[in-house]
Write a structure and sequence with these properties.
With about 290 residues, the protein is α/β, with parallel strands linked by helices. The protein has eleven helices and twelve strands. About 40% of the residues lie in helices and about 20% in strands.
């Protein structure tokens, strides 16, 4: 079974691996049902989806009739205005077939203009606070991509006491000095304030190259089981971090198997060898490639 840890101040004892339900976005219901069985098999108790993940919320909805109490259920809205976020959340509740989600997250809140709108008067945050008062959501978080996300999350936490943050965390991204410094500064604030820290892209290899094979996610993941294990343990060997599974469901079991054994930090030489052998690259490079 997967180790559990307090998910910030929410009171939820979450498995340290969270199911990244973007993997369900293009699936038929019968295949999605099979994925749920895998989650139950490994004891995963936390699902992370989003309004923009294709049909993911629709695929989760039928599960909730029987399994709602098993899962901490999180979704996201990419809308930045009060009305847009309010409408998005209500659609998500309907699609998920629930009266309440545990966590609503402001999705990919990094761009300066969007940040200003979402956290300002008439912005999305007002709608999420209203929803919390109404009992439609329990907690509010913020997520993001790119090399500037950790710094932006710190700004967001100065503006509002979010319950969780989500950001890329893997060997190649942390090898960018400026990003590593921003992440360490963010993690310090999160520890002090008991903010849950979710990570993504633990097993990312690189952006897709021309001529590569079938694509189940926007980036190419690692596929070698030992390399996946090292990527997973790079995250889970650090206390307090949660790992979101890949949007490529074909490697779900490999990730969960890796997380099912005690995580020890891989040697830097082994991680560097993976980078060389698999031609790994950071997904986000300041000033070069900073968006999906």
């Amino acid at each position: 079974m997967i180790e559990t840890s307090p998910f910030g101040k929410t009171g939820h004892q979450s498995t340290r691996v969270l199911f990244g339900a973007a993997a369900l976005g293009g699936m038929k219901q019968d295949k999605a049902d099979g994925v749920l069985e895998v989650l139950l098999e490994y004891g995963i108790n936390h699902i992370d989806t989003a309004a923009s993940y294709g049909e993911s919320e629709l695929r989760i909805g039928p599960w909730m009739r029987e399994h709602r109490k098993r899962f901490f259920l999180a979704t996201k809205t990419g809308d930045r205005t009060y009305q847009g976020a309010r409408d998005s959340l209500h659609r998500s509740l309907e699609r998920l077939r629930v009266d309440q989600v545990d966590l609503i997250q402001m999705h990919n809140l990094v761009a300066e203009n969007e940040w200003t709108t979402a956290l300002g008067a008439g912005g999305a945050l007002e709608a999420l606070l209203e929803a919390r008062t109404q009992g439609l959501v329990r907690f509010i978080g913020v997520t993001g991509h790119g090399s500037q996300v950790a710094a932006m999350h710190r700004r967001s936490l100065e503006r509002f006491p979010f319950d969780s943050v989500l950001f890329p965390y893997n060997f190649t991204m942390l090898d960018i000095k400026s990003y590593e410094e921003d992440v360490e500064a963010l993690l310090k604030v999160c520890r002090e304030r008991e903010v849950a820290t979710q990570t993504i892209k633990s097993v990312a290899r690189r952006r897709w190259q021309n001529g590569d094979g079938r694509k189940f996610s926007w980036y190419e993941p690692l596929r070698d089981r030992e390399a996946i294990r090292r990527g997973v343990h790079f995250v889970l060997s650090r206390p307090g971090l949660f790992l979101n599974t890949s949007s490529d469901a074909t490697i779900l079991r490999d990730i969960l198997d890796a997380a099912s054994v005690k995580a020890t930090a891989p040697a830097r030489a082994d991680m560097e060898a993976d980078v060389e052998h698999y031609a790994m690259e950071p997904l986000f490079i300041p000033g070069v490639s900073d968006t999906i």
